[in-house]
Amino acid sequence: MEEVKLFRTWSSPFALRVVWALKLKGVEYETVYEDLANKSSSLLEYNPVHKKVPILLHNGTPICESLVILEYIDERWNTTARFLPEDPLARATARFWAKFNDDQVAPSVFRAYVSQGVEQEEAIGPALEKLDIVEKQLTGKKFFGGESFGFLDLVFGWIAKYLGIFEETGGIKLLEQDRFPQILEWKDRFSDIPVVKENWPDHEKLIAKFRLMRDYFNSTAARCSE
Amino acid sequence: MEEVKLFRTWSSPFALRVVWALKLKGVEYETVYEDLANKSSSLLEYNPVHKKVPILLHNGTPICESLVILEYIDERWNTTARFLPEDPLARATARFWAKFNDDQVAPSVFRAYVSQGVEQEEAIGPALEKLDIVEKQLTGKKFFGGESFGFLDLVFGWIAKYLGIFEETGGIKLLEQDRFPQILEWKDRFSDIPVVKENWPDHEKLIAKFRLMRDYFNSTAARCSE
């Protein structure tokens, strides 16, 4: 009898990767929602190094870092379709772009989102340049790995929802049709996948949450520059 | 006929991981030394995203990011002993700590090394705290993975040489015997492995290079605070 628990926040895109992965593999699991303003003793016990979620607890053993969790799920429940391709070169390519997303795309977009005024204008350029590189990766492909859905779609999946949230609450429209036609096409294709469609956090709740977060960043920035 | 080329600098610890990995697997390869002050057109062509080395070129296809390259080598030349363990949970653990080294240990140690004065004093604490976490990982083990040499030893291998270089050129002694007995024991064990021992860059050249680099950082910092 497998015991699988996912510790997550309700709103983080990093948790969604793991949710999609578990559901795609058909793994039964229990969700524990964490409040990062008041972290549980379990969270601190299971991820003492980073004190972050998502954490996957499998038969009592914690696995941390969402990309590490994705590969774990893919290797541990390996009887259904694999997320990563079989070919070592294709696997290396997938790992390269996953790291690029986490180290560069997501942080640069987030920086553009939470800043304002001149600082925001300066942050938008680098964010768009990272997204240009993502756009190129989709040339001639339905999904990031080619014809079928896989690892990198889970990794880049946040783009399909959160850029819209950032637009609604932060006033930055990054995905213009003429610059990012392939990301926008992929976004529709990705969003149509049942397991994706069915597991987004509630839209209105996300809007309210990110509005609050942006206000918080802005008031902190204003205080620091006074 | 396999064509394998490694683009690297002569002094970077990230390149050494790949050197050790290729030699341990018995892969014949050609080395191309890059000068980062004057990057070759090949470097820019093969790693346009990061414009960094190491790059492994295998039959004309580039693979970038040293951890990605390590996993590629392990999967592509898989008839000799594997670097990563077979068990998915042990693999996840190895990937977690590799990321921890690259995201936290190495940057915090480097920050302590290149800073000076009060700034250096403030940077040493966080670096020691990261190393404390590494120290704990070695409890009851000969190597990071347990009884035998593996993936994480390649990843943490830089510690065995570069902390000494930092001490000689930056005046910071991080690995005190009473605080880090296990890292120091591992360091001796690791340094005895022939492929490791035989492939360190020349000690005097490293000292000269890092002395120059530290001077450069300090003069830049001094100019910025004038």
Automatic annotation (TrEMBL), chains A, B:
CDD domains: GST_C_Tau, GST_N_Tau. Keywords: Transferase. InterPro entries: Glutathione-S-Trfase_C-like, Glutathione-S-Trfase_C_sf, Glutathione_S-Trfase, Glutathione_S-Trfase_N, GST_C, GST_C_Tau, Omega/Tau-like, Thioredoxin-like_sf. Residues 87-216 form the GST C-terminal domain. GO terms for biological process: glutathione metabolic process. One of its GO terms (cellular component) is cytoplasm. GO terms for molecular function: glutathione transferase activity. Its EC number is 2.5.1.18. This is Probable glutathione S-transferase.
